[in-house]
Amino acid sequence: MRNAMVGLIVPAAGMGVRLGVGMPKALYTVGGQTLLSHAVRAAVESGVVSAIVVAAPPGLATRVLEFVQPEIPADVLVRVVDGGVSRQSSVRAALTAMSSDIDVVLVHDAARCLAPPRLFAEVAAAVQAGRAAVVPGLEVVDTLKQVDRRGSVVDTPDRTVLRAVQTPQGFRRGLLQRAHDAATGDEATDDAGLVERLGQPVYVVPGDESAFKVTRPLDLLLAEALLAARAADEGHR
Fold first, then answer.
1. Is the Cα torsion angle 78, 84, 85, 88 positive or negative in sign?
2. What is the pLDDT of residues 43-84, one digit of tens each?
3. Structural domain that includes position 153
4. Where residue 25 sits, what CATH number does that domain have?
5. I need a labelling partner for 195 at 20 to 30 A (CA). Which of 31, 111, 123, 124 fits?
6. Of the candidates 28, 2, 5, 4, which has an alpha carbon nearest to the alpha carbon of residue 15?
7. Which pTM was predicted?
8. Cβ 110 vs Cβ 25: under 8 Å
């Protein structure tokens, strides 16, 4: 699959309740652009994406297209579809709308808006090289505790075998489709989890600290600081 065409799905229908901005999270502005625009631009700059499908908040497809269109070159096909009530249903809707000539699908959360272009390229390359499912992950630095419903600690997992998983996640299209077709309910927090339920292996590549998920107000401050640092770095080149 070394020359397989790569498509990108961006689930961006979430309202971001924990972020507390009172609007769809993907359309919130950081550093002068929406989270969604930052995410799409990085994917395009990776040079590996041929088609993009964004799952937008229902009823906002036209507005979302206006935000992302300026970031997308003419040779990259872009579509915006209505997302669902869950991340899983949004990805499913976008996958249905993906161009038929796409063999490798990357799924990337708009909330991980500062993931660098190289991360898209590395995940896609791993799938093209033969891995059917690939996720980026970081080593866990905190001590983790497993607790019961009463809040009592029942176990301390060995953090050396744990990874904090990020996006973009990459898949052979047929495998991702099978995983979604076999899924029951809408409880999956990532697409790799659906693949694991099929008994299929998922390969982990090194993640990137800048691909953190914007979830809470403090994350917005971190995103602003990182964008300012990047701008300063560009200014000194």
1. negative
2. 999 999 999 999 999 999 998 998 899 889 999 999 999 999
3. 6-235
4. 3.90.550.10
5. 111
6. 28
7. 0.94
8. yes
